[in-house]
Design goal:
The chain has 307 residues and is α/β, with parallel strands linked by helices. It contains eleven helices and 13 strands. The strands form three sheets. It has a five-stranded mixed β-sheet with strand order 3-2-1-4-8, sandwiched between helices. A hairpin with a 5-residue loop joins strand 2 and strand 3. The longest helix is centred in the C-terminal third of the chain and has 25 residues. The model has no long low-confidence stretch (mean pLDDT 92).
Amino acid sequence: MRAAEELDPVLAMDVGGTTIKAEISDSDGRIAAAATVPTPHGERAFDAMAELGDRLLAEVSSATRAGLRRGAIALPGIVDAARSVAVFSSNIGWRDVKVGSRFQDRWGFPVLIEHDVAVAGWAEWRLGAGRGADDVLVVNLGTGISGALTVGGRLVRGGAGQAGEYGHIPVRRDGRRCSCGNIGCVETVASGPSIARAYGERTGRDIDGAEAVFAAVSGDAQARAVIDDAIDALADGLLGVVHAVCPQRIVIGGGLAGAGPVLIDGLHARLERLVRVAPVPEVVAGAFGARAGLVGAARYARLGGLA
């Protein structure tokens, strides 16, 4: 049996608009400790990250703790990994938070930060549903909507160090104001909270999240209308990307990836109607679902970069 040091345990954390997920896992993928907590608003989220890490470190064996020498935290919004700054998150509500060495000082090992969807998309491309394709568009659907893009076998980082804010592409001129300040962005129609809100407005009934709306489409005309509108908005937002880079494959990840054929087949059918001068990409569900950010963060901690 290999020693804890050879199994290379790492601490991985994925911060979302609703929850913070964390794991300590080894290089064989075995999880020594895992937990999820709600995401507080604003900079208080960083206190929650620290406390969650403390909790997991206290749960693992002394051998695992001794072998744990690296960690990575995947953050939403705009992230400056080189300067270790959480620049902006519209959904959680922080701006220009200097992460620096706060987690390294607390836990005693280096902790990298990166953009959550960049590491999730990288994991799906390298290890998951995008594996084997050089041109892949990963779209994470959840509290927000963003993704990652690989072209010619390279992850596109963009001028800000990340690319893929698909949720903030305006698609409805007479739509709602988005948290980013624009009107009618994809997120205002196709994100999880927006789908649940739209169903409530149509029916006057509360529903337990967007997943429940997807589950109800076969027998509920109002649910069908809400989901059709969400898929149309998502397709409209992705249309320009498809024409610009001609991805072979679109991978749907995030909290709504489990919606199944209603979402996957619906999006593909809508793109078939819209795409004119580019090949229509296949649309598939992500291999890791909501765990893609954790898988990517753990790999990032071990490699020290997105390669």
